């Protein structure tokens, strides 16, 4: 049991310069006895309102140096404070506020919400067990307008899809990875590096791009690049929900439409997923 959707903004001041972290936290516990379920005995139950208050107090006292560290702090607090807690899991996700820039100059106390993917993390621990930390990015919308195709696929009497050697590749990416034994990691630096790997693998070199023969191959390229460059990552999961675009037929309007006006296919949409780990 636990408390979901604990939302708050943590403001940190360094003189005139301000820093913000707006997060949503879910904290779940498992107790050493199920007596509250079986017997209605609540003597070991930590009220969910107390769980919420603990999260807020930890944010006040410790700040949020990284999402991962804050999730670890939550796990550590419940494990070290309550002997009746057998398991704790903390999920934290961040609202994507970025510092506002005016003429290239960073503003000291103004921010803009940029929907370029939502950062999240999970930390979980069983008593006398290892601390497990995962992190990720979701709702990351990506598109490239060429160098994508889909050819040579299996065909039978139900196949109507034509082969395409030049199409738009667009989708919403969910990516989650797990760390090995957590040491003194710079979680913020690692997360930024993985995000850069995702964008590089999706798009290819900025001057020429890179051909994608399928959504599946693109997902695998993302995972392979992350594993090759970020040694702390042990397993990485990626899900790409595809958005397809159809070219509008403008012949009746007396116009030739050379893939210049397209409409998205709202539903159904495709999806591909892959989990890749080190040996």
From TrEMBL:
InterPro entries given in the database record: Uricase
Enzyme class label: oxidoreductase
Enzyme Commission numbers on file: 1.7.3.3
GO CC list: peroxisome
Record key words, sorted: Oxidoreductase, Peroxisome, Purine metabolism
Pfam families per record: Uricase
Record-linked SUPFAM superfamilies: Tetrahydrobiopterin biosynthesis enzymes-like
Binding site residues for urate: 48-49, 150, 167, 216, 242
Residues engaged in binding O2: 48, 242
UniProt cross-references to NCBIfam families, sorted A to Z: urate_oxi (TIGR03383)
Family label: Belongs to the uricase family.
Name of the protein this chain belongs to: Uricase
Organism from which the protein derives: Illadopsis cleaveri (blackcap illadopsis)
Name of the gene this protein is made from: Uox
